[in-house]
Automatic annotation (TrEMBL):
UniProt name for this protein: Oligosaccharide repeat unit polymerase
Taxonomic superkingdom: Bacteria
Keyword Nucleotide-binding included in the entry's annotation: no
Keywords: Membrane, Transmembrane, Transmembrane helix
Spans traversing the lipid bilayer: 12-29, 35-58, 70-90, 121-137, 149-169, 175-195, 251-270, 386-405, 417-437, 443-462
Length: 486
């Protein structure tokens, strides 16, 4: 890295912390402090993605590397963590859909200060995430292997084989956790084949990729989970964006409207009727479609506002932990990290191992987020686990490492699988899809470790079968491409 590149990296890493410093300076006024911190995330988005000081890989134009961590993970992870809190905060101020509904003048209270503090911590986490990613970014990524088959042909076979392996793994308890990664690889491959078929105007690829992707999308509408539907929309949107930028931007607003306004009601109806056994998933989906198509506005608006204020953003849970720790209970220190490491050990080798879900929910019950008698799963997110472990220092260290490891894995995927398309888009974003939004430490570390094992296993099989072969190492320099032998 030359002096200019090093200076660019240092400059952006200093500037991204300015909003957090300002939010601390005005914290005496929690409303102002909140909005400074909230807007600070948009400032970081601009600095790292669009400004002249951005530090990104230079092998591709930004529009063609939107599936790399600096773009997709930053937008999703920080978007959910930092930006969606606006609905909860406006509700706290007495607004609904940005219309004042409370006749009583708002008075700043303890909760206002707690929300502002949580927003500042979230902004710090956003800056730490970007710092970790940028530290590990290679402006000219190294590729050490190449694919010996036609990429489109290989994607089709990988799609089919991954789906079969994922389905089989889901039936075997000891390896069931690998099934999600392989199924995600299959879904991502089908979407990529569809997009590549559209770009190359190859009807066969369009039919194959489109058919499988549509099948998976329709299957996700039967689950009752909003996330599975949203993930499918994100995948196809990000893959199409480099080639159909105007179309995707034009459809962005109506798509977001559907996802935010209609989807919560749709998913709620499917979940309430199919999960109880009252109706089949197909019948529940049909009724859900009827409800949204008939525009049952009062039902939709009530469900939607509850989703926007309590579900899409988890800042309410964060405020409960901030009030609870350290006032009522000391910081957890290394306890959560130790449990996360122990959770990696397969139950085959440790039959008496604790249930990860149970131990991760103990701090939720202890803080009073939900009752211990409740069947609700309300697991924490990385920023919360960072805070309860060691305060703002814990937030910075944990989310910095999150960004660092995320970019490192992406680098390794591109190095092993021949570059951006197969390495980053398919292997990294499919196998490590949980990194898009994160999970609590116990599940997160488990996902990373076993995801890496799965990725290496695929790499090993492809290398042993000569599907991919080792190359001389190419490193692009500022003057062009320089070939270096091992």
């Amino acid at each position: 890295m030359d002096k200019h590149q090093n200076y660019s990296k240092q400059k952006v890493l200093i500037l991204i912390y300015l909003p957090w410093v300002v939010s601390l300076m005005v914290q005496i006024n929690p409303i102002v402090s909140y909005f400074v911190a909230w807007l600070g995330s948009f400032f970081i988005f601009y600095l790292t993605l669009f400004s002249s000081v951005k530090f990104i890989p230079l092998d591709l134009p930004l529009v063609k590397q939107v599936m790399r961590p600096i773009v997709i993970i930053q937008l999703i992870f920080a978007g959910f963590m930092c930006c969606t809190s606006i609905f909860y905060f406006m509700n706290h101020l007495g607004y609904e859909y940005f219309t004042k509904i409370s006749p009583i003048p708002f008075q700043v209270n303890e909760q206002t200060y707690a929300i502002a503090k949580c927003q500042r911590l979230s902004l710090l986490a956003h800056a730490a995430l970007v710092t970790g990613i940028i530290v590990k970014i290679k402006q000219f990524p190294i590729i050490k292997h190449r694919l010996n088959l036609n990429l489109d042909f290989f994607l089709i076979w990988l799609c089919v084989i991954s789906y079969i392996i994922g389905g089989a793994a889901s039936k075997i308890a000891s390896i069931a956790q690998f099934s999600f990664g392989f199924i995600n690889v299959s879904i991502t491959c089908s979407a990529l084949v569809l997009v590549r078929g559209m770009v190359q105007r190859k009807r066969g690829y369009m039919i194959f990729g489109g058919g499988l992707f549509a099948f998976n999308f329709l299957a996700s509408t039967l689950t009752g989970y909003k996330e599975s539907i949203i993930i499918n929309v994100i995948i196809i949107s990000f893959l199409m964006y480099p080639y159909y930028k105007k179309l995707i931007l034009t459809l962005a607003i109506p798509t977001i409207y559907v996802l935010i306004y209609i989807l919560p009601t749709f998913a709620t109806i499917v979940r309430s009727q199919s999960w109880s056994g009252e109706k089949s998933a197909v019948e529940a989906r049909r009724e859900a479609f009827d409800a949204v198509l008939n525009n049952e506005a009062p039902v939709i608006e009530e469900t939607n506002w509850l989703f926007l204020t309590d579900r899409i953003s988890e800042i309410n849970m964060f405020t409960i932990f901030v009030k609870h720790i350290p006032a009522e209970r000391g910081f957890y220190g290394s306890e959560i990290v130790k449990n996360s490491i122990l959770a990696i050990i397969p139950r085959t080798f440790w039959p008496g191992k604790f249930v990860t879900e149970t131990i991760s929910m103990e701090r939720v019950y202890d803080a009073g987020v939900v009752s211990g008698a409740s069947t609700v799963s309300a697991k924490t997110r990385p920023v919360v686990d960072g805070y309860v472990s060691a305060g703002f220092v814990g937030v910075f260290i944990s989310i910095f490492l999150y960004g660092l490891v995320t970019q490192w894995i992406c680098n390794k995927a591109e190095e092993w699988f021949g570059g951006y398309e197969l390495g980053c888009i398919v292997m990294f974003n499919a196998i490590f899809q949980n990194l898009w939004r994160g999970n609590n430490f116990e599940f997160l570390l488990n996902n990373i470790v076993y995801g890496y094992i799965a990725m290496y296993a695929i790499f090993w099989i492809l290398k042993r079968s000569n599907t991919i072969t080792e190359l001389e190492v190419y490193e692009a320099s500022g003057e062009g491409v320089e070939l270096k032998r091992r």
